[in-house]
Amino acid sequence: MHLRGLGRLRRCCDAGRSLLPLPLRRSSSPSSSARPNQASSGTALTAEEEAAVERIKSSLFKARKGSVEDLVRCLGAECSEIRLTNGVADSLLRRFGDDWKSALGFFQWAQSRGDGYAHTPDACGRMVDLLGKMRQIDRMWDLLSEMHCRGLVTVDAVAKSIRRLAAARRWKDAIVLFDQLEDMGLDRNTETMNVLLDALCKEKKVELAREVFIVLSPHIAPDAYTFNIFVHGWCSVRRIDEAMWTIEEMKKKGFPPTVITYTAVLEAYCKQRKFRRAYDLLDSMSSQGCHPNVITYTMIMTSLVKCERFEEALSVSDRMRSSGCEPDTLFYNSLINLLGKAGHLFEASQVFRLEMPRNGVPRNLVTYNTMISILCQYGRDDDALDLLKEMEAQSCKPDLHTYQPLLRLFLSRRGRGDAVDHLLSELVNKSGLGLDLDTYTLLIHGLCRVGETEWAYRLYDQMVGSEIVPRHKTCELLLSETQRQNMEAYVERIQNDIIAFGLSP
């Protein structure tokens, strides 16, 4: 079954360049060379692997201003004797952050070596996702075609591609990719249909998703998740009446709505600040035997916090406890955030230090990030840094969100460049993270505010060299600072970049 009935939909979608049909597969299953040659990426790197990672990163950094082909040639000249493993590849692909050019240069070089190494489907999926995230859609499609020829395409890789196409507003291309699934050895079934519908609905193209569903539903049976996708979709575009109509349709098809279904509607009411209706629906759910869960209560509590209705939010916490619903990590993360924003730092610390361990609820990365962020808001940098050390002792690996509030705090104070430098070194070398657009923006803006224009420009140069397109406000700020300090060479470069990136007002 092909989606011939979607021809009208494809013509009305603004999709940019049309995707070319995928080539026929050369084999029905991955060749022996495509099998993993090392343990999974969860295994810690050996000293030899870590040295290989650092050497490859160093070579890529030297050639960062060149093209992808230049990066491949540079690695071929300087790193040909390095023994590649899946651990090395997975580690590098994680550390590149949003630097898609370095990631692709490494990926292509590793694939072309001919020494028995071959990328795993997971590594290919990660690369596909990064290219899609950075709007390198044509390159993403080329890589997907290459994976197809090697028998490495998975449902996960296709799901990532469809989501990235939808996010790039290439609705037609997302539909075309779904239409070609059988050519790639995958099924057009309920699971893959839901991926397409979910991607469209998440990008608020709910009416288009509905039209696609009407074409597909005679051939592919929907399930409860299909209807939940539409309930969430209608709620996301503030059309709660259609969401309630979908719930009735769901019931007629023999799928009783669950707490997940109703929570989507509750969230929509909360976003519109219709809390009275949310409370009425809560009562209605309970009367139907569909009891709210911890996720439901957490969502309502978080929504009230966003409206700065702190006391009411705490009352929802009390209502949840009295209903016998047990708190979980997500609930406590929200409660800590609520208490911090309400000015109750001591109580937030008590929940973190005493209540969670007493109730046997584990802390996770978000728990630590939330507590660190609150401590930074109150200027408690020593306590925040102690928590960062505690994370290491608890084998809880920090991410960029862990470091950002600390960087923001130190950047707000003149004379703390050493602390910023130390954190950056730890972020890259100890935690193995790569800077993304948000972190570059935070650093450049913060450094400009404290007069570290030279340092800010070096980071800007590194970002642009990694082909991460800066935001317009970043270019304008840095241009203003370099002009004020008569840094003529920098001024000319930034002005050229503004034109090259199409950032002119």
Automatic annotation (TrEMBL):
NCBIfam families: PPR (TIGR00756). Residues 23-36 have a biased composition (Low complexity). Residues 23-47 are annotated as: Disordered. This is Pentatricopeptide repeat-containing protein. Keywords: Repeat, Transit peptide. The keyword Transit peptide applies. PROSITE patterns: PPR. PPR repeats lie at residues 223-257, 258-292, 293-327, 328-363, 364-398, 436-470. Belongs to the PPR family. P subfamily. The lineage of its organism: Eukaryota, Viridiplantae, Streptophyta, Embryophyta, Tracheophyta. It holds the Pfam family PPR.
